[in-house]
Amino acid sequence: MGKKRENRGKRSDTQPVSECNLDGDFRSPVHSFRDLTVENIRTTLARSRYMQILLSVTLVGFVFRFYHLGYNSLWLDEASTLTFAVKSLPGIWQATTSGEFNPPLFYWLEHFMLTFGNSEAVLRFIPAFLGFLTIPLIYLVGKEFIDRNAGLIAATAFAFSPFLIYYSQEARAYSLMLFFVTASLIYYLRALKKNDIKDWALFGILSALAFWSHFYALVIIGALVLYALYELVPKIRNDLNTARPVLIAGVLFGLICLPLILVTIQLFALRTASAPTFGIQGPDLILATFAQISGSETAMYVLLLLFIAGIVQAFLMDKNKGIFLVTVTVLTFVISNFLSYKIPMQPRYLIFMAIVYFVAIALVYRLLFTQVHSCGIVYGFLIFMVIVNVPMLVGYYSGYTKEDWRGFAGQLEGMTKPGDQIVLVPGYLYQPFDYYYSNKTQGTTELYADNEKTLETIHRQSRNTTIYYIVTGDITSADPTGGAVAWLENNTKFLGNRNGISLLVSG
After folding, report:
1. Cβ(188)–Cβ(173) under 8 Å?
2. How many CB atoms lie under 10 A from the CB of residue 338?
3. From CA 462, how far away is CA 28, in angstroms rounded?
4. Longest dimension (CA), the chain
5. C-alpha radius of gyration, the chain, whole number
6. pLDDT over 70 for what percent of the chain?
7. Pick the residue with more confidence: 241 or 290?
8. Cα–Cα distance, 425 to 272 (Å, whole number)
9. What is the rounded CA–CA span in Å between residue 148 and residue 152?
10. Helix H or strand E encompassing 90
């Protein structure tokens, strides 16, 4: 026999590589927390290509998430975060039980962040930090699901994804939910393999924290539980003790989330009492979700084909892996499609689909590797994930991506005079507007209107006062009849629009 030769995962030409190992014959000395010595860490970083690449993409992801963190103004939803975060801890919980359709965990965290100030960067620090930490977590998900190569590809996709960067720079709970869902998936995948009580318990706890971060986490948690039952029920029939670890996870989740589950039922009934006045409905939601996660419609066509190819590859490798990907994807979109006609739906609620999407895409490297038998396929995929996102990232950092309330307020300050009236349409726009504009300093009066009747009343009572109207697209949600828009068209003059914020003046 010819002598075997290994070098960074390559073998002699007479023997095809059966599995790509970027580390070659190096074996990491770190197998548990007890092995985390300075020497072992130094050796691993010096010799492991996996750790070198993972560390590099994680640091790049860190830069992307903290660069220009305070550049964009706070927009409506972020200003709403501040509105709740300034309340006391019990007050935040009371706001949730009174109708705020977001769990309190993120607001509680932001409440403590206010110790450092209430600037845009401070309010966005937690999402940015957790978005950065999610990169190595998705590596572990990919590693548990298939191997380290898939983990590296998925982590690179996460690090460079404009969609995930955007929501890592937004003072809302989406990055927090994604962090906990990703962390829970690591233990979930391990639990499916070993059925270990510790893994199931950690899955239950982390899933509960994901639910406390955002109500929509319950959708993917439900999908994961259903798939787990598919795998475990045959084993439970043979041995009832097999069910004990799963039951412990369920009990932990239930105990942690019990107060929130009761509130969720009440809020869902309240939210579905009438048809949604904004959001995306039906199949359009599916396309919009794939487009946003992909970064653009152009990139979506390529990535969606790879996603489908990845699912095919999963079935070729292990039928259960394919069923897992299909189950989570189909159940998520079927439930979301149904709910889109009951409650307002946006692709950002499905941010956790980025996990399934990029892990499935990462699997395609295996499909090509079986034909080429070269680890260059892995490097090629890593480069591809960078190249496909660079054009969108250039656009993302070259201008404003949110409503520019800061610039708008500065412009308005130069136009208004003491005694002028400012009408916000709809009224809840006061949250971002008042963050940047001071009526007390300017000597102006602030009023609110959500419909034609209120606008007409303000107009009649104003006499000779100059009235400025500030309007955004939210008016169609506040007044879906179109009456307010029609009144503004007939009674005001358009002065301009700044990043989605329109300014009108009484005619």
Report:
1. no
2. 11
3. 75
4. 100
5. 26
6. 96
7. 290
8. 24
9. 6
10. helix 89-97
**314 conformational bin, left if phi > 0, alpha if psi -120 to 50, beta if neither:** alpha
Best CA proximity match to 16, nearest among 406, 393, 369? 369
pLDDT digits (tens, 9 = 90+) for 228-239: 999 988 888 888
Q: Are 361 and 310 in contact (CB under 8 A)?
A: yes
Higher pLDDT, 371 or 306: 306
H helix or E strand, kind and range, residue 502: strand 501-506
Residue where the block lists tokens 């996603």: 307
Phi, psi for residue 275 in degrees, rounded to 5:
-65, 145
For 145, residues 6+ apart whose C-beta sits below 8 A from its C-beta are 189, 321, 359
Residue 130 has pLDDT above 90, yes or no: yes
Query: Mind listing the pLDDT tens digit for each residue in 445-483?
Result: 999 999 999 999 999 998 789 999 999 999 998 999 999
- β-strand partners of 470: 424, 503
d(CA 69, CA 176): 17
**pTM for the whole thing?**
0.93
Burial of 451 (0-12, 13-18, 19+ CB in 10 A): middle
**Tell me, what's the pLDDT at 285?**
95
Token pair listed for 200 = 């199931």
The residue whose two tokens read 């706070």 is 74
Q: Where do we find the tokens 């898939």?
A: 150
SS3 481: coil
Q: What is the pLDDT of residues 254-277, one digit of tens each?
A: 999 999 998 988 888 888 877 888
H or E element: which one contains 457? helix 452-461
Q: Which of 128, 95, 90, 89 shows the shortest CA–CA distance to 109?
A: 89
Whether residue 413 contacts residue 324, with contact meaning beta carbons closer than 8 Å, is answered with: no
Inform me whether the pLDDT recorded for 3 exceeds 70.
no
The pair of structure tokens assigned to 177 is: 């939910």
CA distance 196 to 176: 26
From residue 311, alpha-carbon distances to 68, 78, 325, 444 in Å are 37, 36, 7, 59
Contacts 24+ apart (CB under 8 A), 311-319: 311/360, 311/363, 312/367, 313/363, 313/364, 313/366, 313/367, 314/360, 314/363, 316/367, 317/146, 317/363, 317/366
Q: Are 210 and 256 in contact (CB under 8 A)?
A: no
Phi-psi region of 482 (alpha: psi -120 to 50; beta: other; left: phi over 0): left
What is the reported pLDDT for 18? 57
